[in-house]
Amino acid sequence: MFGEISLSTILLALLMTYAVVLTYKVLNEKNLVKAILYTTGQAIAYTLALALLAAPDLVLVYMAIGIGMHTLLFLYIVSHTEDREYETIEKVPGKGDR
Amino acid sequence: MINDILWSYIYALVITIIALTIYGMATRPNIVKKLIMLSMLFSTVCLMAVIIGVHSGSIKPPVYPGITFTEHPWAGTAELDIFSYEAVDPILQVLVMVAIIIGSVVLLFLGYVAIMVYRRYGTLDMRLIELRRREGYG
Amino acid sequence: MSSKPNEDRWGIIRDSIIAVLASLLIVLFAAVLLSTGTIAIPPQSTNRPLANYYLRTVFNHDLQWLWSSSPETVSAILLDHRGIDTVYGVGIFFITIMATLMLTSKLENSSRVKDMGMDIITRSVSKIILLTLPVIAVSIALHGHLAPGGGFQGGTVFALAVSTAFIALGQGFLWSRGWSRHRLLGLGVLGLVIIFSIALAIPVAGLFRGLKTYIMQNQWKPWSPIGFGYAYNLYGLEILYSGSLLFLNIALFIAMSSGLTLVFTLLMLREEHGKGGHG
User: ipTM of this predicted complex?
Assistant: First the structure.
């Protein structure tokens, strides 16, 4: 019931607050593995919000793709390339060669 | 009154997430961070499309209940009236479904491009890639 | 961009300008949506007229020239009312898969790779997942016209189950049992061919009988009296298959599962020495 103030609206507001906090943490995180785990937490919040908004087909698709596939893809890229982010160029290792 | 405030808060949060992800894509120099922000932007826009379809009153998914392969009583006019009042908007869910599938495949392709860039330039930092391109590295 | 500490303030000014511009753009977009009535605070009291039309006519036995004989509105709109958009969407899906295949054309999969995978607990759990999740995926795809589900959902669950097994059980597990990229691509193209043939079945039949028909037509209409039907009598039971929705769900499941499995497993390939390398 979204007409008057109800548990559904309060729950949706809580889930979106959780998502905003996690997005801000991803922005400032230098360790990429932690950033990917925050992204997974945000995808879980979005799946719960989609279930609250009565969209059962989207819950099935978003669970498989948002939580499963995106985490898998980003963790694979990070494991085969570098896994930190640097503020200025001097701190990047390997800047001197070639 | 409080309902107005709650709904304005929810819409303001969605708008904040979209603005934060666009800012993150533009300013952070690592390619994987840009891809993470792009996936978040995509998911948030899809969620916003579903939030628009909600209306006040009872909320039920747009599926007529109680039909199986062998038991399928046809729906009368009165039941269809109740069904069309209580269900959420189904058209937005259709658009979001196709969009999620296509967006995920495009993100997979961009991941491959990121791995290829790493193999060629040795780094994933955009400023360092620009320096190395200027020196004629690749 | 700058490496000297006293030039770093240009970086901060640039970042803040981008932040202000992004926020302004999004707030402007939200204001436009609010003023035209798309977003209503609090939410509107009834559904929009187009949604009311779809919800009333999708399972209405009295209006048989408008219905699509399926109580699941999302699948009916996706495969019958807006079916051509789905066909285009699956076409774009496969074009992107082809672009990905072009990038990795130099990698070979080999069953001689001795990769034992992870420890024994993960391997046992992955074997259970590999046995049970594909059955669930096929079940989700087959009842997509009666309950939430369909070809898209089943395909993604199937691909995720296979890729979990691929990571946990090692590379040689699947390649030595006959899975190869050419067979997966062939299955994907088979799914596409079935979709296109279902879309063109009724126009071809109408051509032979001299009737006016439409592409992706599902049910009988008074001005084009040919259709797929909606129920079938089997040993006294009347089974509701909603016209072309059941066959399209099966074809979408085949296409989506093999396409996504192909892209996932190509990501995990280890390149042989001398092949791949500088892309």
Answer: 0.90
